[in-house]
Specification:
This is Gram-positive cocci surface proteins LPxTG domain-containing protein. Keywords: Membrane, Signal, Transmembrane, Transmembrane helix. This protein has 3 helices and 15 strands. The protein is of the alpha+beta class. A hairpin with a 7-residue loop joins strand 13 and strand 14.
Length: 326
């Protein structure tokens, strides 16, 4: 009976030990329903606004909130109508820093951008213009100047802008639908060498920046034009750091030759010889070889004496043993 009870207790204990980890894991990890977890919905509130169709399959999404007045130009197709989705491909964006651009033959300009009631003006290829007021907002200091057009040759042109963010240049090529193919600003003031021609902003962070270019073919001279001056009362968002002229390094003066040191004749301490040296006797000079020989001889003599002592002691012990035996 006792054996059966012991066997049952052992079985229960083993079963509990096997089930304990699983139960602990079940209590430690809360049950989750995979269907209840869902990805967060995308938030398009930053880009939502008042959409208006401006022609050529384009819609302008007009905004005027904390970011300032904005007109997001999106390509929706010619069949778009109010109420349809407009969150599609962005063609360009107009704001206070870039208030002018062109797209699909339309000239787009955000006028009165610094006022509380800016207006988007769209001019078609035939010269007809339409205005689209933006929602009312807050006025700001108008630091914008431009666009100022400039022909740079080889069928290309440039538009110069100036704002509180600094100078900006848009480059256009004839027959490209009026879209700019490159943009220069303070952070990217020059085209790469692979562009095939020179276009850059000289002194981009200075008070008087200059646009400089040199195109291939025709006249190879370098063209330069100054940006318009900052409007009175405009405070740029950066401190002016005008380029300083490069100064040639000065040649260091040759090192002077130190004056020769004169031997001291006064103030030296004289040593008076004493003993045999004072009497003129010559003392033997002890060389290193003599020192080595002296040390080796003394060492050998001491070793021989030690061996002789041990030999005498051994002989004495043997003599005593023989006397005792006799």
């Amino acid at each position: 009976m006792r054996t059966a009870l012991r066997t049952s207790a052992v079985t229960v204990a083993l079963a509990g030990a096997m089930l304990l980890p699983a139960a602990g894991a079940a209590f430690a990890a809360p049950a989750t329903n995979p269907q209840s977890a869902s990805a967060p919905a995308s938030d398009n509130s930053r880009y939502e606004g008042e959409p208006v169709y401006i022609g050529e399959g384009l819609v302008a999404v007009l905004r005027n909130k904390a970011e300032g007045p904005e007109a997001w130009i999106r390509e929706v197709g010619p069949q778009w109508k109010p109420g349809d989705d407009y969150m599609v491909r962005v063609v360009t964006k107009l704001d206070r820093t870039l208030p002018h651009d062109r797209a699909k033959g339309l000239d787009l300009e955000l006028t009165k951008a610094a006022s509380a009631r800016p207006v988007l003006v769209v001019t078609a290829a035939d010269g007809s213009a339409k205005s689209y007021p933006l929602p009312a907002g807050e006025a700001s200091t108008d630091c914008r100047v431009g666009p100022v057009g400039q022909e740079i040759g080889a069928g290309m042109s440039a538009e110069l802008y100036l704002s509180e963010l600094g100078p900006k240049v848009l480059l256009f090529e004839a027959g490209d639908g009026g879209r700019s193919f490159a943009q220069l600003d303070r952070t990217h003031p020059s085209l790469p060498e692979s562009a095939g021609f020179v276009a850059r902003i000289v002194n981009p962070s200075g008070a008087k920046p200059v646009f400089e270019w040199k195109t291939q073919g025709g006249n190879d001279t370098v063209g330069r034009v100054a940006f318009p001056a900052f409007p009175k009362g405009c405070k740029p968002s950066y401190a002016f750091t005008d380029d300083k002229p490069v100064t040639k390094p000065t040649t260091p003066a040759p090192a002077s030759t130190p004056a020769p040191v004169k031997p001291q004749t006064a103030g030296q301490t004289s040593v008076v010889p004493k003993g045999p040296v004072a009497a003129g006797a010559e003392l033997p000079v002890e060389t290193a070889a003599d020192t080595v020989d002296t040390v080796d001889t003394a060492t050998m003599t001491a070793g021989a004496a030690l061996i002789a002592a041990f030999g005498a002691l051994a002989a004495s012990v043997v003599l005593r043993r023989r006397t005792t035996r006799g």
